[in-house]
Design goal:
InterPro entries: Homing_endonucl, Intein_endonuc_central, LAGLIDADG_dom. It holds the Pfam family LAGLIDADG_3. One of its GO terms (molecular function) is endonuclease activity. The chain folds into 5 domains: 54 residues; 51 residues; 43 residues, Arc Repressor Mutant, subunit A (Orthogonal Bundle), CATH 1.10.10; 75 residues, Endonuclease I-creI; 126 residues, Homing endonucleases (Endonuclease I-creI, Roll), CATH 3.10.28. It has 19 helices and 8 strands. Helix 2 crosses helix 3 and helix 13 packs parallel to helix 16. The longest helix is centred in the last third of the chain and has 30 residues.
């Protein structure tokens, strides 16, 4: 329905002379405020500036806020004038005018700053998570939480959170603490003694674990073992077809530093930890398979004479018979590729089916090397099939016995 009754003369009278607002005119003429706005544009009646509209409203005292409400928001809830204005949908100047009118004391600048700090204070748990777990710098935390890095530094000092050393801060990739799981620890010690070169960095702040291999399965195993603790670097293939791969770890991996021809006491005193150690050592140095005579075998060859003897002794204790370790290759022997054995290479064998099958069953859930596990399953099946054949032969022989 067209409102032809809203004339330019009427609008000028109400808006310019009587100083009514658009909303007040719309209410009086029983129409929508949008209609009034469009008519004013059509008739060339300019809208009042915001400042003038507020002044008129203040003079007419259209906006009145109860003292009790302001005291509750400003004094009790500690809202700022801007926050109250936003909550009540009024201009900031109106809130300030009402506060002054009701003689509510305004806050000093120092009190305002203190309130802002307390409202925006970062929780200790949030700061610790970003700094220690996410490994962000103070500047990065500041950018993420929209505060200055000095504020982050001050809060960390206030909470007693220790800052990282410069050598740690400068590392490109984050480092994560060892899980603390003793089964994992026993496996990693076995794998380290067998196949890893481990040393401290020049800053003595990081531990560098490295390995070389031509096999992709070995590289994948290395990645799976350490990717949750640090960045894995894999080098280019060298002339001898080997490639180097390494990881930089934090000092929670100190247990990887020693390389002794000896199994730690806490490992060999516990059957479960011993088997995890043996799994790690087997993934590094072991071989599981079926010989040319179609007989299954398990063997480990290494320079670690004492460790092989300890493994042999501990296996006997859990009912697994194995041949005592013996020298397989003498020191100084030169291989076809030109490499020379720097020490005697010792070998531990388990060949008896009655011992080999339970050993494989012990290792099966603990091995992590994909090829080693595949070989184990094939070897295990070989023993089971041979046992079944022997059983069938025995049954056949009983069939022809006289009754």
């Amino acid at each position: 329905m067209r409102r032809n009754d809203i004339t330019p003369k009427l609008l000028r009278e109400l808006y310019l002379k009587k100083l009514l607002s658009k909303q007040e005119i719309a209410s009086r003429l029983k129409c929508n405020i949008t209609t009034i706005h469009k008519k004013m544009v059509k008739f060339g009646i300019p809208a009042r500036p915001v400042a003038k509209a507020i002044r008129i409203a203040m003079e007419k005292q259209i906006i009145k806020i109860p003292k009790s409400k302001l005291e509750h928001l400003y004094l009790k809830k500690k809202f700022s004038i801007s926050e109250i204005a936003k909550k009540l949908n009024h201009d900031r100047s109106i809130i300030k005018r009402e506060i002054e009118k009701h003689k509510i004391p305004l806050r000093s600048h120092s009190v305002i700053m203190k309130l802002i700090r307390s409202k925006n204070k970062i929780k200790k748990s949030v700061l610790a998570k970003l700094y220690y777990q996410k490994c962000l710098t103070q500047k990065q935390i500041g950018g993420k939480l929209n505060v200055h890095k000095e504020t982050v530094h001050r809060l960390m000092k206030e909470y007693g959170l220790k800052t990282r050393k410069k050598s740690e801060i400068s590392t490109r990739y984050p480092k994560f603490n060892f899980s603390g799981n003793l089964e994992e620890k026993a496996y990693l010690i076995g794998f380290r003694i067998g196949d890893l070169n481990v040393r401290l960095s020049h800053s003595k702040n990081l531990i560098i674990a490295r390995c070389t291999s031509t096999k992709m399965a070995q590289i994948k195993l290395f990645k799976n073992l350490f990717k949750k603790y640090g960045h894995i670097y894999v080098g280019k293939i060298r002339g001898d077809r080997n490639r180097e791969f390494l990881v930089r770890l934090n000092r929670t991996f100190n247990f990887l530093l020693p390389k002794k021809d000896n199994i730690p006491k806490w490992i060999w005193e516990n059957k479960n930890y011993l088997l995890y150690f043996l799994a790690g050592y087997t993934d590094a140095e072991g071989c599981i398979g079926i010989g040319s005579n179609k007989v299954a075998f398990f063997k480990i060859s290494s320079y670690d004479k004492k460790i092989l003897k300890q493994i042999c002794e501990q296996l006997f204790k859990i009912g697994i018979e194995c041949n005592p370790p013996r020298i397989h290759v003498k020191k100084g022997h030169k291989k076809s590729d030109g490499c020379v054995y720097r020490n005697d290479e010792w070998r531990l064998n388990v060949n008896k089916k009655s011992s080999l099958l339970p050993l494989l069953q012990f290792l099966k859930p603990r091995l992590k090397h994909r090829k080693r596990l595949k070989d184990l399953i094939r070897t295990e099946q070989n023993i089971i099939e041979r046992n079944q054949k022997i059983l069938l032969k025995k049954r056949a022989s009983f069939k022809y016995l006289p009754v």
